[in-house]
């Protein structure tokens, strides 16, 4: 297959008639890791959710293609099968559905009827990835996210990513709520996935995560769009100095979005 | 009931070679039908449901091999085929009996009236015919099965029964009577189905006497088509330290009145009610689990789940009554309805009635739809909307189905539900 490419152009998104994204431009290729940073309430999660097709978000303008195909025309499950993955900031709890049943359904949905993964192979693969993430084996048979602690949920999102091996992963604050050891483990999981076959978008507030997962590009999000881009050094400066200098440089007073129309 | 006469009731009774006292009970009930009211059901109007228009079909052919039975019937059997009784309309058409211990009875009523009359006289028709439907049952009772387990005997393999309705306007009135003596154990599975369209009525009664320290599990799986009015009235009386478990799968497509009543008489008795329903099209169901705590230290748990699709309606009633004197008792109940389509309807009515201070009790009830965010989450992993809904429904019902001990029974319930979901 050709090099993966996710291309976002002038993306505009509203929620309940309130415009949140105001023209996002971003192109991600296989092998690249992009970090998106930005103050609270500036639209980062909105971008992630809208790309995945969250039912509450309405795309009002712009275009997104995944490997040349129109992503926005696809249903949520088609987007996933086209290679998009979102590790959610707040994943749902699903009672009565075990983690492993869920993961097997997801893998088989991708592989298609008649090409289902054998149970043995699935179990072996799941054991292996749970080992990498240092997850207790009981998580395989527990109900999906039910009663998981904040950090356990994050690990479980990464487990899903490692099992599904998507072409594009968006990790929304995968580091929040993780202790330092867990952070290293999750970062190791992401690094293991790093390859020219895969692109990654990491949404984070902290340079700390980027010490473990070195980004190729760093973007600053404000007012529902990317206002500044650079290399890893940009993240370091944000960590030391905060966002005021960016606002000053760009003449931004209120960096949030959607409060005044 | 003008279509039927006393003579027909007498004939019915004679065809089972019943003793005179049984015929009298039938005729008493027959005479009472016109004057008795229909039962009053919470939020379900049954005035126009058909309880009295039916034909009594007679069956001639019997089967010597299970393979000769239609697949719909044959697929109901569990891994083990030792003890099976299949009744089609009025007659037993297939039966196996192996490896039953000394003194265990598992037989049709026709047989039981001849061989075990003393036992029947003690237990059969002892409940009041409280309303018109139960009077109709008592007058027309046909077949069914009598199970008796002597003291200290454990019946290792489940006793399996099938009640099979066939023919235009066909009706069945099976009666299941279970007597489990002190410290005995038995599991019974009762399947109810029709094989061709146009059948009218299944009006069945289950009566269970759980002796001191005995353990009885009865699973009923009903899957009638949409022409059938499916009424099942279950009763259990539980003695000291006895243990009753009801597993109720209401998977019929027509009209359903499904009820279980359990009296915890002796101290330390326990009952579990696990009830699942899946309704499609215009199915209407009223499902009641009712428990009376009389003995001290008695415990009960009702877990009821209904999934309603299309225009189906489910009313789930859970009633736990702790009587004065039943101290140190505990009654818990959870009733949940999941609606899949905008026109599906459901209601959960939790009722706790407590006349004793020194007890614990709790209830939870909910009526809702599939959470769109949960659906989004599952779909975001590549699972189609249809598959994702199936997973969620399976999960919703699994808190009840996962506890059903037989893997084959669990699989068969799942299969039926998935068939309905996809149709
Ligand atoms: N479901 C929703 N309903 C109403 N408003 C919403 C919804 N989702 C997002 N918003 C609003 O859109 C704006 C952007 O939210 P978003 O979650 O994208 O921010 P963020 O950049 O991810 O913030 P944080 O760093 O705090 O996670 C906020 O003002 C938020 O309140
Ligand atoms: Mg966010």
Automatic annotation (TrEMBL), chain A:
Protein family according to the UniProt entry: Belongs to the ABC transporter superfamily. Ycf16 family.
Domain ABC transporter: 6-248
Key words, A-Z: ATP-binding, Nucleotide-binding
Pfam family, any one: ABC_tran
InterPro entries: AAA+_ATPase, ABC_transporter-like_ATP-bd, ABC_transporter-like_CS, FeS-cluster_ATPase_SufC, P-loop_NTPase
Gene3D superfamilies hit by this protein: P-loop containing nucleotide triphosphate hydrolases (3.40.50.300)
Molecular function per GO: ATP binding; ATP hydrolysis activity
Full protein name: Fe-S cluster assembly ATPase SufC
Organism annotation: Shimazuella alba
């Amino acid at each position: 297959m050709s090099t993966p490419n996710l291309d976002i152009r002038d993306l505009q998104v509203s929620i309940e008639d309130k415009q949140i994204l105001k023209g996002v431009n971003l192109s991600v290729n296989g092998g690249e890791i992009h970090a998106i940073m930005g103050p609270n309430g500036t639209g980062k999660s909105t971008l992630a959710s809208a790309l995945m097709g969250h039912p509450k978000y309405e795309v009002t303008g712009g275009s997104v293609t995944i490997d040349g195909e129109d992503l926005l025309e696809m249903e949520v499950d088609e987007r996933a099968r086209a290679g998009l993955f979102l590790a959610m900031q707040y994943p749902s709890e699903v009672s009565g559905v075990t983690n492993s049943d869920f993961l097997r359904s997801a893998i088989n949905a991708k592989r298609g009827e008649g090409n289902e993964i054998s149970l043995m192979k699935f179990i072996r693969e799941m054991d292996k990835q749970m080992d990498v993430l240092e997850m207790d084996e009981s998580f395989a048979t527990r109900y999906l996210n039910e009663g998981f602690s904040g950090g356990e949920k994050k690990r479980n999102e990464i487990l899903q990513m490692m099992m599904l091996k998507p072409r594009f992963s968006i990790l929304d604050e995968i580091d929040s709520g993780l202790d330092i050891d867990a952070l290293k483990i999750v970062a190791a999981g992401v690094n293991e996935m790093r390859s020219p076959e895969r692109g990654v978008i990491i949404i984070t507030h902290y340079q700390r995560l980027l010490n473990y997962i070195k980004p190729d590009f760093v973007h600053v999000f404000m007012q529902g769009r990317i206002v500044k881009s650079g290399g890893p050094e940009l993240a370091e400066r944000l960590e030391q100095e905060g966002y005021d200098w960016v606002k000053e440089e760009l003449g931004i007073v209120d960096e949030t979005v959607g409060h005044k129309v | 009931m003008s279509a039927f006469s006393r003579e027909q009731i007498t004939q019915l009774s004679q065809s089972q070679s019943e003793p005179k006292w049984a015929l009298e009970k039938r005729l008493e009930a027959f005479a009472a039908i016109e004057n008795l009211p229909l039962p009053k059901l919470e939020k379900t109007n049954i005035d126009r449901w058909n309880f009295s228009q039916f034909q009594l079909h007679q069956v001639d052919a019997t089967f010597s091999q299970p393979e000769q039975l239609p697949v719909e019937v044959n697929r109901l059997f569990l891994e083990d085929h030792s003890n099976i009784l299949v009744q089609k309309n009025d007659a037993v058409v297939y039966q196996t009996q192996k490896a039953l211990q000394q003194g265990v009875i598992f037989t049709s009523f026709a047989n039981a009236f001849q061989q075990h009359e003393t036992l029947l006289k003690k237990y059969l028709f002892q409940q009041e015919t409280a309303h018109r439907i139960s009077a109709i049952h008592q007058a027309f009772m046909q077949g069914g099965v009598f199970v008796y387990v002597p003291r200290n005997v454990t019946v290792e393999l489940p006793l399996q029964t099938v009640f099979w309705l066939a023919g235009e306007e066909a009706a069945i009135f099976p009666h299941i009577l279970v007597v489990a003596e002190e410290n005995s154990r038995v599991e019974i599975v009762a399947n109810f189905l029709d094989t061709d369209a146009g059948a009218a009525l299944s009006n069945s009664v289950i009566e269970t006497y759980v002796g001191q320290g005995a353990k009885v599990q009865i699973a009923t799986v009903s899957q009638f088509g949409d022409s059938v009015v499916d009424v099942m009235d279950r009763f259990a009386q539980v003695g000291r330290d006895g243990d009753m478990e009801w597993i109720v799968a209401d998977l019929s497509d027509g009209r359903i009145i499904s009820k279980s009543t359990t009296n915890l008489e002796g101290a330390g008795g326990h009952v579990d009610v696990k009830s699942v329903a899946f309704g499609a099209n215009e199915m209407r169901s009223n499902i009641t689990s009712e428990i009376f705590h009389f003995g001290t230290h008695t415990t009960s748990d009702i877990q009821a789940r209904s999934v309603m699709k299309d225009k189906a309606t489910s009313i789930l009633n859970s009633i736990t009554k702790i009587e004065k004197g039943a101290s140190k008792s505990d009654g818990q109940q959870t009733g949940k309805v999941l609606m899949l389509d905008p026109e599906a309807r459901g209601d959960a009515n939790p009722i706790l009635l407590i006349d004793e201070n020194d007890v614990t009790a709790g209830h939870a009830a909910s009526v809702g739809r599939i959470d769109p965010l949960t659906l989004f989450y599952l779909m975001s992993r590549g699972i189609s909307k249809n598959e994702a809904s199936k997973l969620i429904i399976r999960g919703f019902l699994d808190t009840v189905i996962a506890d059903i001990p037989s893997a084959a029974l669990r699989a068969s319930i799942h299969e039926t539900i998935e068939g309905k979901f996809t149709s």
